[in-house]
UniProtKB/TrEMBL annotation:
UniProt GO molecular function: DNA binding; DNA-binding transcription factor activity
Entries under Pfam families matching the protein: HTH_5
Protein name: ArsR family transcriptional regulator
Every HTH arsR-type domain range: 1-100
Keyword Heme included in the entry's annotation: no
Domain of life, per lineage: Bacteria
Source organism of this protein record: Aquimarina aggregata
PROSITE patterns membership: HTH_ARSR_2
Gene3D superfamilies attached to this UniProt entry: Winged helix-like DNA-binding domain superfamily/Winged helix DNA-binding domain
Keyword flag Transit peptide: no
UniProt KW keywords: DNA-binding, Transcription, Transcription regulation
UniProt cross-references to InterPro entries, sorted A to Z: ArsR-like_HTH, HTH_ArsR_DNA-bd_dom, HTH_MetalResp_TranReg, WH-like_DNA-bd_sf, WH_DNA-bd_sf
């Protein structure tokens, strides 16, 4: 972890909904239904479910998720037309260790 990446992550986390999304994705089975096709959370949570839970517009959630993926906090997996996001636990661990 370098200072530039840590600063980018810090900027990304300066928004309550984004922090809340990370919190929800920590235990997705408690906060979201499994996608009707996949029936599991191995690849993350469908964007539609994140948007519905957050109660924000699709464009706002898409921007938030794209920014979080860009700085490495989230990993995206696509299945056909569906996009799934999960936490990048390794990067989150590195970030918290960097701050200690």
């Amino acid at each position: 972890m370098n200072l530039k990446l840590a600063t980018e992550i810090g900027k990304c986390l300066s928004n309550n909904p984004r922090v809340q999304i990370l919190e929800w994705l920590k235990e997705p089975e408690k906060h979201f239904p499994p996608h009707e096709t996949l029936k599991h959370f191995n690849d993350g949570v469908c964007v539609t479910y994140i948007q519905e839970k957050a109660g924000l517009s699709q464009s706002t959630i898409s921007t938030y998720l794209a920014n979080m993926e860009k700085c490495g906090l989230l990993i995206i997996t696509r299945h056909g037309k569906w996009s799934y996001f999960k936490r990048n636990e390794e990067l989150i661990r590195q970030y918290t260790e960097f701050l200690l």
